[in-house]
Amino acid sequence: xAAPKFTKAQREANLLKxxxxxxxxxxxxxxxxxxxxxxxxxxxxxxxLYKRWQDAATINIDHLKARELARLDKIEAEAWSAxxxxxxxxxxxxxxxxxxxxxxxxxxxxxxxxxRFLDIVNKCIAQRCKIIGIEAPQKIEMRDxxxxxxxxxxxxxxxxxxxxxxxxxxxxxxxxxx
Length: 178
Prior knowledge:
There is one protein chain. With 178 residues, the protein is mainly alpha-helical. It has one domain (8-135). Helix content is 63%, strand content 10%. The chain contains six helices and two strands, in the order αααββααα. A hairpin with a 2-residue loop joins β1 and β2 (101-109). α1 (8-23) packs across α3, α2 (28-35) crosses α3 and α3 runs antiparallel to α4. The radius of gyration is 32 Å and the shape is elongated.
């Protein structure tokens, strides 16, 4: 039996239906029965959906990174301005009266600057490095990870039992299948 031919609009409608059914845990065989197509066609729809989801996630992550970097730029610029203002000379005016005559004295004193503003700048730089992924990798000692897990109250054997399926699911995952 030949596979049914769908128009472009029908294919888009099918993609939405496949997405809804798949995300609620339905099998490819069940989805094929609902839509009226073959299981391989559902698999093709899912590959297309995965590609769209991945592209959307990439765009969204890039957008979010750009927005957060812009916020950091603004905060850092404000911190630099505040640092420069904190270095300006402090002026103190004193007025005194002697024999009914008022005299005013202006005193200027140099300032070293408020280091809290430099701390803000430093935090902005560190956060920017994290966002764009250029922060130095951290070394983790793994000599006796089982003992470290036990110290943290974690059963290492249970941890391995939980990690194996997660790794298997993500390594060489060809995409959706029944």
